[in-house]
Design goal:
It is built from 3 helices and 9 strands. Helices cover 20% and strands 42% of the residues. It has 142 residues and is an alpha+beta fold. An 8-stranded antiparallel beta barrel has the order 1-3-4-5-6-7-8-9. It has one domain: Lipocalin, CATH 2.40.128.280.
Length: 142
């Protein structure tokens, strides 16, 4: 039963990252879109590197998985943004394809009709995705 709970929590984290399974809320971080061309800055490969829980505790992906008793290899997530507005993602080896549009610091993704929003932070060169239901935030880095 304890393992089921751990897996359930980890799946919640994956859902936060995977735009197919949940919508992420935009969180203002004070970044100024005029300082950097977000459309150009996001082009390339991004990987899930950190999780921030609802209490504000930050963990690397490996640390968070260890606290949950699961192997981080099975939950690794990545996205590749192309300059033509397409995005390809993978979580635990399962691939998805979609499109994206940039609005200010928001990166609005659509996968199989499901929309979600990631927020670009120019200061840290990260994309974040917050799950409003759990309060958890996933952090992706290039």
């Amino acid at each position: 039963m304890k393992k089921v709970k751990k897996v359930s929590v980890l799946l919640l984290v994956i859902m936060c990252v995977c735009s197919i399974f949940c919508a992420c809320g935009q969180k203002s971080d004070g970044s100024e879109a005029s300082e950097v061309n977000v459309s150009e800055a996001i082009i390339g490969d991004w990987a899930l590197t950190a999780i921030q829980d609802a209490d504000g505790n930050a963990y690397t992906l490996e640390e968070y998985c260890e606290t949950q008793g699961v192997d981080s290899e099975g939950v690794k997530a990545s996205y590749t943004f192309a300059d033509d507005g397409s995005v390809v993602g993978a979580i635990g080896g399962i691939g998805v394809e979609g499109t994206y549009e940039v609005s200010d610091i928001s990166v609005n993704c659509t996968f199989d009709g499901q929309e979600s929003t990631m927020t670009y932070n120019a200061d840290s060169n990260t994309l974040t995705c917050e799950d409003a239901a759990s309060g958890m935030t996933s952090v992706l880095e290039k």
